[in-house]
Backbone:
């Protein structure tokens, strides 16, 4: 998974991902707060799931008490730099582990 994105394309794809996550969180009736390049999903349990854009490395980062992962654009999906898991699948796994509503994000 090599990074062949320029900054403009990275920002376009990353912003689409953030918008999709925000929309899925709204559909699941989750509180979400966006501050610049950081999106926080606040769960009823008090846990947070944080999605953060990393423009210098052209990555999207996902962090929660379940773990932290870095994602790069594969040409079709945001994929974990270590495992290849897509960002959408990872968010499903993390939300399930935290007992939170699942987010429908097949495009990520």
Residues:
């Amino acid at each position: 998974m090599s990074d062949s994105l320029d900054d403009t394309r990275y920002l376009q794809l990353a912003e689409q991902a953030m918008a999709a996550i925000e929309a899925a969180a709204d559909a699941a009736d989750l509180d979400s707060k966006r501050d610049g390049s950081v999106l926080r999903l606040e769960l009823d349990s008090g846990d947070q799931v944080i999605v953060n854009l990393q423009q210098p490395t052209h990555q999207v980062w996902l962090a929660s008490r379940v773990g932290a992962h870095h994602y790069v654009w594969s040409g079709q999906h945001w994929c974990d730099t270590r495992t290849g898991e897509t960002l959408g699948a990872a968010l499903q796994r993390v939300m399930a582990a935290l007992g939170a509503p699942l987010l429908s994000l097949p495009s990520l």
